[in-house]
Design brief:
Length: 110
């Protein structure tokens, strides 16, 4: 998921930087932040739906959830949260670079 999250914005940016296409460089930071937010929300929502289904099935609407259900929910959340954290780190480094240097670190200014 990390490779997809980084590959899509940078791939589109790379394609738009081909000189024979005569395109403006794609603003990859915006898509990087959007994918980060989508990964975080998917990790939260998918696991929350899993827990809600278990609560509905067992009619346990306000009690504690069993340990195996919590572990299963975290096994669903972890890949999304980890990918979101890595993309957040990469995006933060790029934003700090842009703030200090005045442009993003890849060639062809955005």
């Amino acid at each position: 998921m990390i490779l997809v999250g980084l590959g899509v914005p940078f791939g589109i940016y790379g394609i738009t930087c081909i000189p024979s296409l005569n395109l403006d460089p794609f603003p990859y930071p915006w898509l990087l932040w959007a994918i980060t937010a989508i990964y975080f929300l998917l990790g939260f929502i998918i696991a929350d739906i899993q827990v809600a289904r278990h609560r509905r099935k067992t009619k346990n609407f306000d009690g504690k959830i069993e340990e195996d259900v919590r572990d299963k929910a975290w096994s669903i959340r972890f890949p999304f949260f980890f990918a979101s954290a890595v993309l957040l780190t990469v995006g933060s480094v790029f934003e700090i670079w842009a703030f200090v240097a005045g442009s993003y670190p890849l060639p062809f200014s955005i």
